[in-house]
Write a structure and sequence with these properties.
- By secondary structure, the chain is of the alpha+beta class.
- It has one helix spanning 26-39, and strands at 2-9, 15-23, 46-50, 56-60.
- It has one domain (2-60).
- It has one helix and four strands.
- The protein has a four-stranded antiparallel β-sheet, covered by helices on one side.
């Protein structure tokens, strides 16, 4: 399992969510991250999901 990082920001720059996600693949991490954003009602907030290699997998501004 690899560790991915999901971060959500408020308009003022405050971090609303900053958590690590463990997943076997990038696709699994993206699916989990998307579900987590929906669950927390953060889909329309600025957010990003970063892979262990530093790749940006999800981004919304």
């Amino acid at each position: 399992m690899k560790k991915y990082f999901l971060t959500v920001y408020a308009k003022n720059g405050e971090k609303l969510l900053d958590e690590a996600i463990e997943a076997a693949t990038d696709q699994e991490a993206k699916a989990f991250g998307t579900a987590r954003l929906t669950e927390k009602e953060f889909s329309e907030h600025t957010h990003r999901l970063i892979s262990p290699a530093g790749s940006l997998l999800l981004f919304h501004r």
